[in-house]
Design goal:
5 strands; 1 helix; 90 residues; mainly beta; single chain
Amino acid sequence: MKRTLWQNLRACPASDPNHTIDDAAIAVEDSKIAWLGAHADLPDEMKQWPREDLRGAWVTPDLIDCHTHLVYGGQRADEFAQRLAGVSYE
């Protein structure tokens, strides 16, 4: 059973910028979020779990940005020079 406490982070658990937790912690057990909330409210049984310090990073566990980019197999130096010269991107 793998347990990790992610701490020293800012969480936006509901993707609502008006509902954020500035000093948050996330307890992860076997790759699943077991608890998320203010670090001060961390349950006693999780306080001894191995820790990872996120150094104030923002965490949004429910935000997934799914998109892809086409692979371009050549170099684009000429296109870059044209854009620097003011030619439209189109």
